[in-house]
Specification:
The chain is an all-alpha fold. Helix content is 86%, strand content 0%. The protein is globular and about 70 Å long.
Length: 523
């Protein structure tokens, strides 16, 4: 079981790594054309709105409700016709709801963007509204793509869905370079690339869905709303929408505060989050995606020992990866940002703004990643209320701290609020695990704390020589340009940090590290 988790995680992580690297290139493209200008803030706000709704309608409905219900149909040996009817009903319902939201969103876009932009900036409001209208249909196509992903993941087919973000990022990157020559400004070119990329994500997965035995077509709205499986999905997702809405409101309020804190704050926070999401997407999201179908199957068949083992193992892998990366990133944050983003439009001020946010964002990396691993434990047992409550608690912490700190610390205060809220959310999830059936919470908490402390100690041991070496390398290679002046110190520091960490893991024969090493050799 553990071997399957690691093997599947490695395959999906490889595709996700490419996707996240391209996502970083996408942000580098944005930095090259827009920097931290007002136009960059306008694009960030415009993309935020449909993207938040995507997480609410698409990703949330798949992970929380559709996959467990779909797996239930398969595990309970429902007839092919009955299962296909459920799949088509869900597809129709998602399409209808998101299309309705898109139409409303396009109509009221000028009113929505006023929440995020100062009232006296008429030109910026008009441009942000236009960009929002261009990208709002992205919500519909990406929701359809997410529905297809849920079907494939429910069948434990992960690679097609893992490849689609690569297509999306390529569309945005090349769309920006090509269309910016013909359009009034590069933000509009990038917006068109977002929409085309979303369409490709849906179109690419459709043949794989049909090949898996689930040909898609719409059914009547009456069947969509009355299908027993679809009604079960709705019953599961409604309470979770409250929690997810709280999380999305977090982002919206944070962005609104950032938009009023000064020019470049919105975009600097997004540049920082992109670096963080590169790590989260490769590891936490991949592992969470892989374990949910198996957790659901173990829960439905009462195989609780395997269930507990998989959950604890996944959390250990996350700690092994994210805690050392956090320490390394705190040492080398400025060079990372300069290497990735710095251009004529992304100047020293842009670097300083982004570094301030990145320092606080990266401090919460483990907790954000852990939340994405622990939450599937609730969803697998059909419990959406407890993570909803945890989300509301995190929401309250984030909003309170963001309001309190944004005026004094600006982007850094907003980033700190998110990390602190993630910590509180993790604690709440562990507390609520006690209410789930047959989960040995005490053992899971003990192993998580002990293993995390072990990783912190190892990371501290590696950080001390790495910090002194990094300081020397930065001075030694200063003046050699953006690529060499930042890249060489980053590489040499990483080698020293990784070598010390690897020696410590080998000396203690760390089981998680040994298992990953064995699976990589076989892979």
């Amino acid at each position: 079981m553990k071997k399957n988790l690691v093997s599947s995680g490695i395959k999906l992580s490889f595709l996700t790594l490419i996707s996240r690297v391209l996502g970083l290139v996408r942000e580098m493209t944005k930095a090259r054309f827009l920097g931290t200008s007002a136009l960059a803030d306008a694009f960030g706000i415009a993309f935020l709105i449909p993207n938040l709704l995507r997480r609410l309608f698409a990703e949330n409905s798949i992970s929380v409700a559709f996959i467990p219900t779909f797996r239930g149909y398969l595990e309970n040996k429902k007839s092919k016709e009955e299962t296909l009817e459920f799949v088509r009903a869900t597809f129709t319902l998602i399409s209808f709801l998101t299309a309705s939201v898109v139409c409303v969103g396009i109509l009221v876009a000028p009113l929505i963007v006023r929440i995020f932009v100062k009232g006296d900036e008429a030109a910026l409001i008009a441009e942000t509204a236009l960009l929002t209208r261009i990208m709002f249909p992205y919500l519909f196509v990406i929701s359809v793509a997410a529905c297809f992903q849920g079907i494939l993941n429910g069948e434990k087919i992960f690679l097609p869905s893992g490849f689609t973000p690569i297509l999306f990022n390529l569309c945005v990157i090349f769309g920006t370079y090509i269309l910016s020559r013909k359009m009034e400004n590069p933000a509009r070119a990038m917006s068109v690339g977002v929409l085309v990329g979303g369409c490709l994500q849906a179109a690419f997965q459709l043949p794989f869905v049909a090949k898996a035995g689930w040909p898609m077509r719409f059914t009547s709205l009456k069947k969509a709303f009355t299908n027993p499986g679809t009604r079960q999905v709705v019953a599961l997702i409604v309470p979770t929408i409250i929690g997810m809405a709280s999380y999305q409101i977090n982002d919206m309020v944070s962005t609104a505060l950032a938009g009023r804190a000064g020019e470049g704050i919105v975009s600097s926070l997004q540049y920082s989050l992109r670096l963080q999401e590169l790590i989260l997407g490769v590891f936490a999201v991949s592992i969470g995606t892989v374990i949910l179908p198996d957790l659901s199957a173990y829960a439905k068949s009462g195989r609780w020992e395997e269930y507990n083992s998989m959950l604890t193992w996944a959390i250990k892998i996350i700690a092994l990866i994210t805690i050392p990366i956090t320490f390394y990133s705190l040492i080398t944050g400025q060079e990372i940002i300069q290497l990735v983003y710095k251009t004529k439009r992304f100047d020293e001020n842009s670097v300083a703004l982004t570094l301030r946010a990145f320092t606080f964002h990266i401090a919460g990396l483990f907790f954000i990643a852990a939340n994405r691993i622990i939450s599937p434990a609730f969803y697998a047992q059909g419990n959406t209320k407890l993570p909803t409550v945890a989300g509301i608690i995190g929401f309250a912490v984030n909003i309170t701290l963001a309001f309190a700190l944004s005026f004094k610390w600006s982007g850094g205060g907003i980033a700190f609020a998110l990390s602190a809220a993630s910590l509180v959310n993790t604690i709440a999830l562990f507390v609520f695990l006690r209410r789930l059936q047959s989960i040995d919470v005490g053992k899971a908490v003990r192993q998580t704390i002990l293993y995390s402390l072990k990783m912190i100690l190892f990371s501290l041991a590696a950080s001390v020589p790495a910090w002194f070496a990094h300081k020397y390398f930065v001075e030694r290679f200063a003046g050699m340009g953006r690529l060499l002046g930042n890249g060489i110190p980053l590489l040499l520091t990483a080698l020293i940090f990784a070598a010390i960490g690897a020696l410590l893991l080998l000396a203690t024969r760390d089981q998680a590290a040994m298992q990953i090493l064995r699976r990589k050799r076989r892979f």
